[in-house]
Specification:
- The chain is an alpha+beta fold and about 80 residues long.
- Helices cover about 40% and strands about 25% of the residues.
- It has three helices and three strands.
- Strands 1-2-3 form a three-stranded mixed beta sheet.
- α1 runs antiparallel to α3.
- The radius of gyration is 12 Å and the shape is globular.
């Protein structure tokens, strides 16, 4: 599956937010008309991506939704610890 704008946006931002950008992986799949984007970060890094009171995660989800809207899609972003 080719990388979409949503996946690229999430990957670039997550790599900028973490201390270990080489451990960031973004997987994308389709489920019932919705694009599921799973963001995997290295151990101990989810807190950096989620942010205080989830503000950073909310901003990431908003940007992902905006990127998906350009393609006429809806997107769900899940942040996960570890490797896929």
């Amino acid at each position: 599956m080719e990388a979409t704008g949503v996946r690229a946006v999430v990957e670039v931002l997550a790599k900028a937010l973490t201390d270990r950008p080489d451990e960031v992986q973004v997987l994308e799949s389709q489920h019932k008309g919705t694009t599921l984007v799973e963001l995997y970060v290295g151990g101990g890094e989810p807190g950096r991506v989620i942010g205080r009171q989830g503000r950073t995660a909310t901003a990431l989800r908003t940007l992902a939704a905006s990127a998906a809207e350009k393609d006429g899609k809806t997107v769900t972003l899940e942040i996960r610890d570890g490797k896929p």
